Amino acid sequence: MGTPREVASMYFTMVAAFLVILVVALQGSAPRESYFPYKVPLDPQGLLELSWNVSYPEQAVHFQLLIRELQFGILFGMSDRGAFENADLAVLWSDGHNSYFGDAWSDAKGQLHMDSQQDYQLLGARRAPEGLYLLFRRAFSTCDPKDYLIEDGTVHLIYGILEEPVHSLQAINISALHGGLQRVQLLKPNVSIPELPSDMKTMEITAPNVVIPSQETTYWCYMAELPAGFPKHHIIMYEPVVTAGNEALVHHMEVFQCAAEFDSFPHYNGPCDSKMKPDRLNYCRHVLAAWAMGAQAFYYPEEAGLAFGGPGSSRYLRLEIHYHNPLVFKGRRDSSGIRLYYTATLRPYDAGIMELGLVYTPVMAIPPGEDNFILTGYCTDKCTQLALPTAGIRIFASQLHTHLAGRKVVTVLSRDGRERQVVNADRHYSPHFQEIRMLKEVVAVFPGDELITTCTYNTEDRSRATVGGFGILEEMCVNYVHYYPQTQLELCKSAVDPGYLHRYFNLVNRFNDEEICMCPQVSVPQQFYSIPWNTFNRDVLKSLYGFAPISMHCNKSSAVRFPVGTA
Questions:
Q1: Which of 348, 477, 486, 499 could hold 455 in an S-S bridge, CB 3.0 to 4.6 Å?
Q2: Is 502 a catalytic residue?
Q3: Known catalytic residue: 342?
Protein backbone atom coordinates (compact mmCIF):
# COMPACT_ATOMS: atom_id res chain seq x y z
CA MET A 1 0.00 0.00 0.00
CA GLY A 2 1.45 3.43 -0.96
CA THR A 3 1.37 6.62 1.07
CA PRO A 4 -1.99 8.37 1.45
CA ARG A 5 -0.83 10.98 -1.07
CA GLU A 6 0.02 8.29 -3.66
CA VAL A 7 -3.31 6.55 -3.06
CA ALA A 8 -5.13 9.87 -3.44
CA SER A 9 -3.18 10.59 -6.61
CA MET A 10 -3.98 7.11 -8.04
CA TYR A 11 -7.64 7.55 -7.14
CA PHE A 12 -7.69 11.04 -8.63
CA THR A 13 -6.29 9.70 -11.89
CA MET A 14 -8.79 6.85 -11.84
CA VAL A 15 -11.74 9.24 -11.41
CA ALA A 16 -10.50 11.52 -14.14
CA ALA A 17 -9.95 8.57 -16.50
CA PHE A 18 -13.41 7.16 -15.75
CA LEU A 19 -15.04 10.53 -16.38
CA VAL A 20 -13.18 11.04 -19.63
CA ILE A 21 -14.40 7.63 -20.84
CA LEU A 22 -17.91 8.62 -19.76
CA VAL A 23 -17.64 11.93 -21.59
CA VAL A 24 -16.51 10.29 -24.85
CA ALA A 25 -19.59 8.08 -24.60
CA LEU A 26 -21.78 11.15 -24.03
CA GLN A 27 -20.47 13.02 -27.07
CA GLY A 28 -21.29 16.24 -25.21
CA SER A 29 -19.95 19.55 -26.47
CA ALA A 30 -18.28 21.37 -23.60
CA PRO A 31 -18.01 25.16 -23.85
CA ARG A 32 -14.51 26.70 -23.77
CA GLU A 33 -13.29 28.20 -20.50
CA SER A 34 -13.76 31.74 -21.81
CA TYR A 35 -17.49 30.97 -21.88
CA PHE A 36 -17.69 31.01 -18.06
CA PRO A 37 -17.84 34.71 -17.16
CA TYR A 38 -19.39 34.26 -13.69
CA LYS A 39 -17.46 32.78 -10.80
CA VAL A 40 -18.01 32.20 -7.08
CA PRO A 41 -16.22 30.16 -4.35
CA LEU A 42 -18.68 27.63 -2.91
CA ASP A 43 -16.93 26.91 0.40
CA PRO A 44 -15.12 29.22 2.88
CA GLN A 45 -11.71 27.61 2.15
CA GLY A 46 -12.08 28.01 -1.61
CA LEU A 47 -11.63 24.29 -2.33
CA LEU A 48 -14.69 24.32 -4.62
CA GLU A 49 -15.05 27.03 -7.23
CA LEU A 50 -18.08 27.33 -9.47
CA SER A 51 -18.06 29.14 -12.83
CA TRP A 52 -21.06 29.33 -15.12
CA ASN A 53 -22.68 30.89 -18.14
CA VAL A 54 -26.29 31.41 -19.14
CA SER A 55 -27.69 30.60 -22.58
CA TYR A 56 -31.08 32.26 -23.03
CA PRO A 57 -31.54 30.79 -26.56
CA GLU A 58 -31.02 27.27 -25.13
CA GLN A 59 -32.76 28.15 -21.81
CA ALA A 60 -29.90 26.40 -20.01
CA VAL A 61 -27.01 27.02 -17.62
CA HIS A 62 -23.55 25.54 -18.26
CA PHE A 63 -21.57 24.90 -15.07
CA GLN A 64 -17.85 24.36 -14.55
CA LEU A 65 -17.01 23.08 -11.08
CA LEU A 66 -13.35 23.12 -10.00
CA ILE A 67 -12.64 20.57 -7.24
CA ARG A 68 -9.19 21.41 -5.85
CA GLU A 69 -8.76 18.39 -3.56
CA LEU A 70 -11.02 15.58 -4.72
CA GLN A 71 -11.57 12.85 -2.13
CA PHE A 72 -14.40 10.38 -2.84
CA GLY A 73 -16.86 12.63 -4.56
CA ILE A 74 -18.98 15.73 -4.44
CA LEU A 75 -22.64 16.75 -4.22
CA PHE A 76 -23.71 19.97 -5.91
CA GLY A 77 -27.24 21.25 -6.28
CA MET A 78 -30.06 23.66 -5.48
CA SER A 79 -32.91 23.88 -3.01
CA ASP A 80 -35.56 26.39 -2.03
CA ARG A 81 -33.73 27.91 0.97
CA GLY A 82 -30.39 26.06 0.97
CA ALA A 83 -31.42 22.95 2.93
CA PHE A 84 -30.12 19.49 1.97
CA GLU A 85 -33.66 18.12 2.29
CA ASN A 86 -35.93 18.37 -0.77
CA ALA A 87 -32.92 19.28 -2.88
CA ASP A 88 -32.09 18.76 -6.57
CA LEU A 89 -28.54 17.39 -6.86
CA ALA A 90 -25.76 16.40 -9.24
CA VAL A 91 -23.62 13.75 -7.52
CA LEU A 92 -20.14 12.41 -8.30
CA TRP A 93 -19.27 9.48 -6.04
CA SER A 94 -16.86 6.58 -5.80
CA ASP A 95 -17.02 3.16 -4.15
CA GLY A 96 -13.20 3.07 -4.11
CA HIS A 97 -13.03 1.19 -7.43
CA ASN A 98 -15.38 2.90 -9.86
CA SER A 99 -16.76 6.42 -10.03
CA TYR A 100 -20.27 7.46 -10.97
CA PHE A 101 -22.07 10.69 -11.90
CA GLY A 102 -25.82 11.16 -11.76
CA ASP A 103 -28.81 13.44 -11.25
CA ALA A 104 -30.38 12.79 -7.84
CA TRP A 105 -32.86 14.29 -5.42
CA SER A 106 -33.29 14.20 -1.66
CA ASP A 107 -36.58 13.68 0.15
CA ALA A 108 -37.89 15.50 3.24
CA LYS A 109 -35.77 13.20 5.45
CA GLY A 110 -32.59 13.87 3.46
CA GLN A 111 -32.51 10.42 1.84
CA LEU A 112 -30.96 10.45 -1.65
CA HIS A 113 -32.66 8.90 -4.69
CA MET A 114 -31.48 8.58 -8.28
CA ASP A 115 -33.73 10.72 -10.50
CA SER A 116 -35.69 8.78 -13.12
CA GLN A 117 -35.11 11.74 -15.47
CA GLN A 118 -31.40 12.66 -15.76
CA ASP A 119 -31.34 16.44 -16.27
CA TYR A 120 -27.84 17.31 -15.10
CA GLN A 121 -25.95 16.40 -18.27
CA LEU A 122 -22.24 15.71 -17.81
CA LEU A 123 -20.34 17.37 -20.68
CA GLY A 124 -16.74 16.90 -19.73
CA ALA A 125 -14.05 16.49 -17.13
CA ARG A 126 -10.39 17.40 -17.22
CA ARG A 127 -7.48 17.32 -14.85
CA ALA A 128 -5.37 20.40 -14.38
CA PRO A 129 -2.59 21.29 -11.92
CA GLU A 130 -5.15 23.10 -9.74
CA GLY A 131 -7.62 20.19 -9.58
CA LEU A 132 -10.41 18.42 -11.45
CA TYR A 133 -12.82 20.40 -13.64
CA LEU A 134 -16.32 18.97 -14.04
CA LEU A 135 -18.47 20.45 -16.81
CA PHE A 136 -22.21 19.90 -16.87
CA ARG A 137 -25.38 21.47 -18.18
CA ARG A 138 -28.85 21.99 -16.77
CA ALA A 139 -31.98 23.42 -18.44
CA PHE A 140 -33.81 26.20 -16.54
CA SER A 141 -37.03 24.16 -16.52
CA THR A 142 -37.16 20.38 -16.93
CA CYS A 143 -40.84 19.53 -16.28
CA ASP A 144 -39.55 17.06 -13.68
CA PRO A 145 -41.36 17.51 -10.33
CA LYS A 146 -38.17 16.46 -8.49
CA ASP A 147 -36.11 19.19 -10.16
CA TYR A 148 -35.56 22.76 -9.01
CA LEU A 149 -36.94 25.42 -11.37
CA ILE A 150 -34.10 27.86 -12.13
CA GLU A 151 -35.66 31.33 -12.28
CA ASP A 152 -34.73 34.99 -11.91
CA GLY A 153 -33.45 36.14 -8.54
CA THR A 154 -31.49 34.37 -5.83
CA VAL A 155 -30.59 30.69 -6.11
CA HIS A 156 -29.40 28.77 -3.03
CA LEU A 157 -26.59 26.47 -4.18
CA ILE A 158 -25.58 23.63 -1.88
CA TYR A 159 -22.46 21.45 -1.83
CA GLY A 160 -21.22 18.44 0.08
CA ILE A 161 -17.82 16.74 0.08
CA LEU A 162 -17.61 12.93 0.29
CA GLU A 163 -14.62 12.06 2.50
CA GLU A 164 -15.05 8.27 2.34
CA PRO A 165 -16.03 5.82 -0.41
CA VAL A 166 -19.72 4.85 -0.63
CA HIS A 167 -21.09 1.67 -2.19
CA SER A 168 -24.23 3.35 -3.54
CA LEU A 169 -25.97 6.71 -3.88
CA GLN A 170 -28.53 5.69 -1.23
CA ALA A 171 -25.70 5.03 1.23
CA ILE A 172 -24.67 8.71 1.28
CA ASN A 173 -25.56 10.17 4.67
CA ILE A 174 -26.32 13.84 4.09
CA SER A 175 -26.22 14.77 7.79
CA ALA A 176 -22.61 13.52 8.09
CA LEU A 177 -21.37 15.49 5.05
CA HIS A 178 -18.95 18.38 5.18
CA GLY A 179 -21.12 20.83 3.26
CA GLY A 180 -22.73 24.23 3.07
CA LEU A 181 -24.56 26.73 0.90
CA GLN A 182 -23.76 29.66 -1.35
CA ARG A 183 -26.27 32.20 -2.71
CA VAL A 184 -25.94 33.55 -6.25
CA GLN A 185 -27.99 35.16 -8.98
CA LEU A 186 -27.60 32.39 -11.58
CA LEU A 187 -29.61 33.98 -14.38
CA LYS A 188 -27.54 37.07 -15.06
CA PRO A 189 -29.12 39.57 -17.46
CA ASN A 190 -27.73 39.61 -20.97
CA VAL A 191 -26.98 43.35 -20.83
CA SER A 192 -24.80 44.87 -23.54
CA ILE A 193 -21.85 46.81 -22.12
CA PRO A 194 -21.98 50.50 -23.07
CA GLU A 195 -18.90 52.17 -24.56
CA LEU A 196 -16.87 53.95 -21.88
CA PRO A 197 -15.63 57.51 -22.43
CA SER A 198 -11.95 58.36 -23.04
CA ASP A 199 -11.82 60.80 -20.09
CA MET A 200 -12.96 58.13 -17.61
CA LYS A 201 -11.13 58.08 -14.27
CA THR A 202 -11.19 55.59 -11.42
CA MET A 203 -11.34 55.94 -7.64
CA GLU A 204 -10.92 53.07 -5.21
CA ILE A 205 -12.85 53.17 -1.93
CA THR A 206 -11.09 50.36 -0.06
CA ALA A 207 -10.50 49.20 3.50
CA PRO A 208 -7.07 50.30 4.76
CA ASN A 209 -5.42 46.87 5.28
CA VAL A 210 -7.74 45.94 8.16
CA VAL A 211 -7.44 42.74 10.20
CA ILE A 212 -10.65 40.74 9.64
CA PRO A 213 -12.04 39.95 13.11
CA SER A 214 -11.90 36.27 14.08
CA GLN A 215 -15.67 35.84 14.36
CA GLU A 216 -18.29 34.53 11.94
CA THR A 217 -19.97 37.83 10.99
CA THR A 218 -18.53 41.34 10.94
CA TYR A 219 -19.84 44.53 9.36
CA TRP A 220 -16.83 46.83 8.95
CA CYS A 221 -17.22 50.59 8.41
CA TYR A 222 -14.59 52.90 6.93
CA MET A 223 -14.97 56.61 6.17
CA ALA A 224 -13.46 58.01 2.98
CA GLU A 225 -13.40 61.56 1.65
CA LEU A 226 -13.58 63.09 -1.82
CA PRO A 227 -10.92 65.73 -2.61
CA ALA A 228 -11.80 69.32 -1.59
CA GLY A 229 -13.58 71.17 -4.39
CA PHE A 230 -14.38 67.91 -6.24
CA PRO A 231 -16.82 69.02 -8.99
CA LYS A 232 -19.92 67.14 -10.17
CA HIS A 233 -19.12 63.88 -12.01
CA HIS A 234 -21.13 60.92 -13.22
CA ILE A 235 -20.37 57.41 -11.95
CA ILE A 236 -20.77 55.25 -15.05
CA MET A 237 -19.71 51.83 -13.69
CA TYR A 238 -18.22 50.19 -10.63
CA GLU A 239 -16.68 46.83 -9.80
CA PRO A 240 -15.41 44.97 -6.75
CA VAL A 241 -11.79 45.04 -5.58
CA VAL A 242 -11.30 41.90 -3.48
CA THR A 243 -7.97 41.15 -1.80
CA ALA A 244 -6.43 37.96 -3.26
CA GLY A 245 -7.05 35.03 -0.91
CA ASN A 246 -10.11 36.65 0.71
CA GLU A 247 -12.60 35.82 -2.07
CA ALA A 248 -14.53 33.45 0.22
CA LEU A 249 -14.62 35.90 3.17
CA VAL A 250 -15.81 39.15 1.55
CA HIS A 251 -19.57 38.56 1.40
CA HIS A 252 -20.89 41.93 0.29
CA MET A 253 -19.86 45.60 0.15
CA GLU A 254 -21.64 48.95 -0.15
CA VAL A 255 -20.50 52.55 -0.60
CA PHE A 256 -22.83 55.19 0.88
CA GLN A 257 -22.71 58.96 0.48
CA CYS A 258 -23.31 61.03 3.60
CA ALA A 259 -26.00 63.67 4.07
CA ALA A 260 -25.09 67.09 2.61
CA GLU A 261 -26.51 69.05 5.55
CA PHE A 262 -23.45 68.22 7.71
CA ASP A 263 -20.22 70.08 6.91
CA SER A 264 -18.00 67.32 8.21
CA PHE A 265 -18.03 63.71 9.33
CA PRO A 266 -15.57 62.08 11.75
CA HIS A 267 -12.99 59.62 10.46
CA TYR A 268 -13.75 56.05 11.49
CA ASN A 269 -12.32 52.63 10.73
CA GLY A 270 -13.87 49.79 12.74
CA PRO A 271 -16.86 47.49 13.25
CA CYS A 272 -20.18 49.14 12.33
CA ASP A 273 -21.81 47.94 15.57
CA SER A 274 -19.02 49.20 17.84
CA LYS A 275 -19.89 51.61 20.66
CA MET A 276 -16.94 53.67 19.40
CA LYS A 277 -18.66 54.35 16.06
CA PRO A 278 -19.74 58.02 15.92
CA ASP A 279 -23.53 58.43 15.68
CA ARG A 280 -23.18 60.83 12.78
CA LEU A 281 -22.20 57.90 10.51
CA ASN A 282 -25.88 56.89 10.62
CA TYR A 283 -26.51 59.85 8.28
CA CYS A 284 -24.48 58.16 5.53
CA ARG A 285 -27.29 56.15 3.90
CA HIS A 286 -27.45 57.23 0.23
CA VAL A 287 -26.28 54.17 -1.76
CA LEU A 288 -23.69 54.88 -4.48
CA ALA A 289 -22.65 51.27 -5.10
CA ALA A 290 -23.55 47.81 -3.79
CA TRP A 291 -21.85 44.49 -4.59
CA ALA A 292 -22.49 40.95 -3.38
CA MET A 293 -20.48 37.76 -3.90
CA GLY A 294 -20.83 36.43 -7.46
CA ALA A 295 -21.84 39.81 -8.91
CA GLN A 296 -19.95 41.34 -11.83
CA ALA A 297 -19.19 44.95 -12.68
CA PHE A 298 -22.27 47.21 -12.67
CA TYR A 299 -22.78 49.48 -15.71
CA TYR A 300 -25.07 52.50 -16.00
CA PRO A 301 -27.00 52.85 -19.27
CA GLU A 302 -25.14 55.07 -21.76
CA GLU A 303 -27.71 57.89 -21.40
CA ALA A 304 -27.30 58.22 -17.60
CA GLY A 305 -24.82 58.37 -14.75
CA LEU A 306 -25.02 58.62 -10.95
CA ALA A 307 -24.08 62.15 -9.88
CA PHE A 308 -21.58 62.72 -7.10
CA GLY A 309 -19.43 65.70 -6.18
CA GLY A 310 -20.22 69.36 -6.74
CA PRO A 311 -22.42 71.73 -4.73
CA GLY A 312 -25.16 70.19 -2.62
CA SER A 313 -23.33 66.86 -2.48
CA SER A 314 -21.36 65.60 0.55
CA ARG A 315 -17.63 64.89 0.19
CA TYR A 316 -17.90 62.09 2.74
CA LEU A 317 -18.40 58.43 1.84
CA ARG A 318 -18.88 55.36 4.05
CA LEU A 319 -17.63 51.95 2.92
CA GLU A 320 -19.38 49.00 4.60
CA ILE A 321 -17.99 45.46 4.18
CA HIS A 322 -19.72 42.32 5.41
CA TYR A 323 -17.07 39.70 6.26
CA HIS A 324 -18.33 36.12 6.54
CA ASN A 325 -15.67 34.14 8.40
CA PRO A 326 -17.29 30.87 9.60
CA LEU A 327 -13.93 29.09 9.93
CA VAL A 328 -12.80 31.96 12.20
CA PHE A 329 -9.49 32.64 10.47
CA LYS A 330 -7.23 34.82 12.64
CA GLY A 331 -5.03 37.69 11.51
CA ARG A 332 -6.27 37.78 7.90
CA ARG A 333 -5.64 41.26 6.43
CA ASP A 334 -7.99 42.86 3.92
CA SER A 335 -7.99 45.87 1.59
CA SER A 336 -11.16 45.07 -0.34
CA GLY A 337 -13.62 47.68 -1.56
CA ILE A 338 -15.23 49.11 -4.66
CA ARG A 339 -13.64 50.78 -7.69
CA LEU A 340 -15.76 53.63 -9.08
CA TYR A 341 -15.40 54.62 -12.75
CA TYR A 342 -16.47 58.21 -13.32
CA THR A 343 -16.42 60.95 -15.93
CA ALA A 344 -16.46 64.76 -15.92
CA THR A 345 -18.30 64.67 -19.27
CA LEU A 346 -21.80 64.48 -17.88
CA ARG A 347 -24.29 62.20 -19.63
CA PRO A 348 -27.73 63.50 -20.71
CA TYR A 349 -29.47 62.31 -17.52
CA ASP A 350 -28.73 62.04 -13.82
CA ALA A 351 -29.74 58.62 -12.51
CA GLY A 352 -31.95 58.60 -9.42
CA ILE A 353 -32.86 56.11 -6.70
CA MET A 354 -36.46 55.81 -5.52
CA GLU A 355 -37.78 53.78 -2.57
CA LEU A 356 -40.87 51.66 -3.24
CA GLY A 357 -42.76 49.43 -0.80
CA LEU A 358 -43.81 49.99 2.81
CA VAL A 359 -43.16 52.96 5.06
CA TYR A 360 -40.92 52.13 8.07
CA THR A 361 -43.74 52.04 10.62
CA PRO A 362 -44.97 49.63 13.32
CA VAL A 363 -48.55 49.77 11.95
CA MET A 364 -47.49 47.04 9.48
CA ALA A 365 -46.88 43.87 11.50
CA ILE A 366 -46.52 40.11 11.05
CA PRO A 367 -47.98 37.75 13.68
CA PRO A 368 -45.62 35.11 15.13
CA GLY A 369 -45.63 31.54 13.80
CA GLU A 370 -46.47 32.49 10.19
CA ASP A 371 -44.86 30.57 7.32
CA ASN A 372 -46.10 32.74 4.45
CA PHE A 373 -47.41 36.15 5.59
CA ILE A 374 -47.83 38.78 2.86
CA LEU A 375 -47.58 42.57 3.17
CA THR A 376 -48.00 44.93 0.21
CA GLY A 377 -46.79 48.49 -0.33
CA TYR A 378 -48.16 50.80 -3.03
CA CYS A 379 -46.73 53.61 -5.10
CA THR A 380 -50.12 54.83 -6.27
CA ASP A 381 -51.32 56.33 -9.54
CA LYS A 382 -52.03 59.60 -7.66
CA CYS A 383 -48.38 59.89 -6.67
CA THR A 384 -46.89 59.06 -10.09
CA GLN A 385 -49.42 61.42 -11.72
CA LEU A 386 -48.18 64.30 -9.56
CA ALA A 387 -44.47 63.52 -9.43
CA LEU A 388 -43.35 61.95 -12.73
CA PRO A 389 -42.58 63.84 -15.95
CA THR A 390 -44.95 63.38 -18.91
CA ALA A 391 -42.34 61.35 -20.78
CA GLY A 392 -42.02 59.02 -17.78
CA ILE A 393 -38.95 57.44 -16.21
CA ARG A 394 -36.89 54.35 -17.11
CA ILE A 395 -36.05 51.80 -14.38
CA PHE A 396 -32.84 49.91 -15.24
CA ALA A 397 -31.82 48.31 -11.93
CA SER A 398 -33.29 47.31 -8.58
CA GLN A 399 -32.17 46.34 -5.08
CA LEU A 400 -34.69 44.46 -2.94
CA HIS A 401 -34.52 44.77 0.84
CA THR A 402 -36.12 43.20 3.92
CA HIS A 403 -34.80 42.20 7.31
CA LEU A 404 -34.41 38.64 8.62
CA ALA A 405 -37.97 37.33 8.14
CA GLY A 406 -38.16 38.21 4.40
CA ARG A 407 -38.57 35.25 1.99
CA LYS A 408 -39.94 36.71 -1.29
CA VAL A 409 -40.09 40.21 -2.79
CA VAL A 410 -41.89 41.10 -6.03
CA THR A 411 -42.59 44.50 -7.63
CA VAL A 412 -45.06 44.76 -10.50
CA LEU A 413 -46.11 47.66 -12.71
CA SER A 414 -49.86 48.21 -13.02
CA ARG A 415 -51.50 50.48 -15.62
CA ASP A 416 -55.23 51.21 -15.86
CA GLY A 417 -55.84 48.68 -13.08
CA ARG A 418 -54.10 45.81 -14.90
CA GLU A 419 -50.74 44.24 -14.09
CA ARG A 420 -48.52 44.93 -17.11
CA GLN A 421 -44.98 43.93 -16.20
CA VAL A 422 -42.81 42.44 -13.45
CA VAL A 423 -40.20 45.04 -12.47
CA ASN A 424 -38.16 42.67 -10.28
CA ALA A 425 -39.05 39.38 -8.60
CA ASP A 426 -37.04 37.24 -6.20
CA ARG A 427 -39.07 34.21 -5.11
CA HIS A 428 -36.13 32.73 -3.17
CA TYR A 429 -35.08 36.04 -1.64
CA SER A 430 -32.55 36.00 1.20
CA PRO A 431 -31.84 38.98 3.48
CA HIS A 432 -28.23 37.74 3.53
CA PHE A 433 -27.79 38.37 -0.20
CA GLN A 434 -28.73 41.86 -1.33
CA GLU A 435 -27.22 43.32 -4.48
CA ILE A 436 -28.19 45.96 -7.01
CA ARG A 437 -29.32 43.93 -10.02
CA MET A 438 -29.43 45.22 -13.56
CA LEU A 439 -32.82 44.40 -15.08
CA LYS A 440 -33.06 42.23 -18.20
CA GLU A 441 -35.08 44.98 -19.83
CA VAL A 442 -35.63 48.62 -18.93
CA VAL A 443 -39.10 49.29 -17.46
CA ALA A 444 -40.86 52.51 -18.55
CA VAL A 445 -43.09 54.08 -15.88
CA PHE A 446 -45.51 56.88 -16.83
CA PRO A 447 -47.68 59.30 -14.81
CA GLY A 448 -50.73 57.40 -13.57
CA ASP A 449 -48.94 54.03 -13.38
CA GLU A 450 -48.86 52.08 -10.11
CA LEU A 451 -45.87 50.19 -8.65
CA ILE A 452 -46.93 47.45 -6.24
CA THR A 453 -44.32 45.76 -4.01
CA THR A 454 -45.26 42.55 -2.18
CA CYS A 455 -43.12 40.94 0.52
CA THR A 456 -43.61 37.47 1.99
CA TYR A 457 -42.37 36.72 5.50
CA ASN A 458 -41.71 33.69 7.69
CA THR A 459 -41.95 34.15 11.48
CA GLU A 460 -42.21 30.47 12.50
CA ASP A 461 -39.23 30.93 14.84
CA ARG A 462 -40.74 33.94 16.66
CA SER A 463 -42.98 34.07 19.70
CA ARG A 464 -44.25 37.64 19.42
CA ALA A 465 -45.39 39.95 16.62
CA THR A 466 -42.77 41.45 14.29
CA VAL A 467 -43.49 45.13 13.63
CA GLY A 468 -42.18 47.37 10.87
CA GLY A 469 -39.15 49.51 11.73
CA PHE A 470 -35.38 50.00 11.51
CA GLY A 471 -34.24 47.35 14.02
CA ILE A 472 -32.91 44.06 12.64
CA LEU A 473 -35.71 42.13 14.42
CA GLU A 474 -38.27 44.56 13.02
CA GLU A 475 -39.21 44.34 9.34
CA MET A 476 -38.98 46.27 6.09
CA CYS A 477 -40.35 45.79 2.58
CA VAL A 478 -38.40 47.95 0.14
CA ASN A 479 -37.37 48.03 -3.49
CA TYR A 480 -34.72 50.66 -4.24
CA VAL A 481 -35.22 51.24 -7.97
CA HIS A 482 -32.48 52.89 -10.04
CA TYR A 483 -33.88 54.98 -12.86
CA TYR A 484 -33.43 58.04 -15.07
CA PRO A 485 -34.07 60.91 -15.53
CA GLN A 486 -33.86 61.79 -11.82
CA THR A 487 -37.02 63.43 -10.43
CA GLN A 488 -37.84 65.00 -7.06
CA LEU A 489 -39.69 61.83 -6.07
CA GLU A 490 -37.43 59.91 -3.72
CA LEU A 491 -39.94 57.82 -1.77
CA CYS A 492 -43.23 56.36 -3.00
CA LYS A 493 -44.56 54.03 -0.28
CA SER A 494 -47.63 53.26 1.79
CA ALA A 495 -48.89 51.81 5.06
CA VAL A 496 -52.33 50.93 6.41
CA ASP A 497 -54.34 53.92 7.59
CA PRO A 498 -53.60 54.18 11.37
CA GLY A 499 -57.23 54.94 12.19
CA TYR A 500 -58.31 51.58 10.77
CA LEU A 501 -55.58 49.81 12.74
CA HIS A 502 -56.98 51.32 15.96
CA ARG A 503 -60.40 49.94 15.05
CA TYR A 504 -58.72 46.53 14.71
CA PHE A 505 -57.21 46.83 18.20
CA ASN A 506 -60.64 47.79 19.61
CA LEU A 507 -62.22 44.77 17.92
CA VAL A 508 -59.55 42.42 19.31
CA ASN A 509 -60.07 43.93 22.75
CA ARG A 510 -63.84 43.39 22.59
CA PHE A 511 -63.59 39.72 21.60
CA ASN A 512 -60.78 38.85 23.95
CA ASP A 513 -61.50 37.36 27.36
CA GLU A 514 -58.43 38.84 29.02
CA GLU A 515 -58.49 42.60 29.32
CA ILE A 516 -55.81 44.06 27.02
CA CYS A 517 -55.14 47.74 27.24
CA MET A 518 -55.60 49.07 23.71
CA CYS A 519 -55.58 52.63 24.99
CA PRO A 520 -54.14 55.43 22.83
CA GLN A 521 -51.30 55.99 25.31
CA VAL A 522 -49.96 52.46 24.69
CA SER A 523 -47.58 52.32 21.71
CA VAL A 524 -48.54 50.39 18.57
CA PRO A 525 -45.76 47.78 19.04
CA GLN A 526 -46.93 47.18 22.64
CA GLN A 527 -50.50 46.69 21.45
CA PHE A 528 -49.32 44.15 18.84
CA TYR A 529 -47.19 42.35 21.44
CA SER A 530 -50.20 41.92 23.78
CA ILE A 531 -52.52 40.34 21.17
CA PRO A 532 -53.33 36.64 21.70
CA TRP A 533 -52.62 35.27 18.19
CA ASN A 534 -55.59 32.98 17.63
CA THR A 535 -56.89 32.25 14.11
CA PHE A 536 -59.54 34.98 14.32
CA ASN A 537 -57.07 37.74 15.22
CA ARG A 538 -54.67 36.60 12.46
CA ASP A 539 -57.38 36.44 9.79
CA VAL A 540 -58.84 39.83 10.67
CA LEU A 541 -55.37 41.42 10.48
CA LYS A 542 -54.82 39.86 7.04
CA SER A 543 -58.19 41.21 5.91
CA LEU A 544 -57.39 44.65 7.33
CA TYR A 545 -54.13 44.81 5.36
CA GLY A 546 -55.93 43.56 2.25
CA PHE A 547 -58.92 45.91 2.27
CA ALA A 548 -58.45 48.91 4.58
CA PRO A 549 -57.55 52.32 3.10
CA ILE A 550 -53.86 53.17 2.95
CA SER A 551 -51.84 56.17 4.02
CA MET A 552 -49.66 57.18 1.06
CA HIS A 553 -46.16 58.66 1.40
CA CYS A 554 -45.16 60.47 -1.78
CA ASN A 555 -41.99 62.31 -0.74
CA LYS A 556 -39.60 64.71 -2.43
CA SER A 557 -35.84 64.47 -1.77
CA SER A 558 -36.20 67.12 0.90
CA ALA A 559 -38.60 64.73 2.75
CA VAL A 560 -41.48 67.11 1.92
CA ARG A 561 -44.56 65.20 0.77
CA PHE A 562 -46.34 65.69 -2.53
CA PRO A 563 -49.99 66.39 -1.58
CA VAL A 564 -51.74 63.01 -2.07
CA GLY A 565 -53.28 61.98 1.29
CA THR A 566 -55.11 58.70 1.92
CA ALA A 567 -55.99 56.33 -0.93
A1: 477
A2: no
A3: no
